[in-house]
Every structure is written in structure tokens, then in C-alpha cells.
Amino acid sequence: MNGKLWLSLLLTLVLGSALTVIYVKHQSQVLFAELRSLQKQQDRQVIEWGRLQLQNTTLATHSNVESRARKDLQMRLPENVELVRLQ
């Protein structure tokens, strides 16, 4: 009887270990898929950041600022410029 008890205990432990290995492997695959998804999202955001940086640089050029000031705000250079020096 003692041998059957040990055998059933050993069988239970082996089955439990096998199920644990299967569960851990599944979790590993799920986490790896999530990691790949997050890496793709990060890559898209890095590309978007670079595009925004380029757009910001383009919009901040002197010629673009002056062009938009003339067009959108109807600004113009003053006709008479007077310089006044203060002591």
C-alpha cells in the first residue's frame, strides 16, 4: 500500500509539473506577442516624432514665418522707420 501511495503522489507531482510547464510556455508566448506589439507601436511613435520635429523646423524658418505673417495676418513692413536714441 505504501508503494501505491508514493506512486500516485509521484504521478500527481509529474502531472502538476507538466501542466505548470505548459502554462508558463503559454504565458511566455502571450507576453512575447505583447512585447512585439509594443515595439511596433514604439517604432510608429518614433517615426511620428521625427516627422513632427521636421515639420517644426520647417515651420520655424524665417521665410515661412514672414510669409505667414503677410498672408494670414496681413502684416507688412513699416514705410517710415524712425530711430530715436535715448540717453
Question: Outline of this structure?
Answer:
The protein has 87 residues and is mainly α. The chain contains two helices and no strands.
What is the fold's blueprint, element by element?
Layout: H1 2-59, H2 62-73
Can you give the helix content as a percent range?
over 70%
Shape: rod-shaped
What is the structural class? mainly alpha
The parts where pLDDT drops under 50 for at least 5 residues are: none
N-to-C CA distance: 113 Å
Tell me about the largest β-sheet: none
- Percent strand: under 5%
The average pLDDT score comes to 92
The tally of beta strands, per DSSP, is 0
* Computed CA radius of gyration, to the nearest angstrom: 35 Å
Order of helices and strands: HH
The number of distinct structural domains comes to 1
Q: How many helix segments?
A: 2
Question: Could you characterize what this model shows?
Answer:
This protein has 87 residues and is an all-alpha fold. The chain has one domain. It has helices at 2-59, 62-73. The longest helix has 58 residues, at 2-59. 0% of the residues are buried. The mean pLDDT is 92.
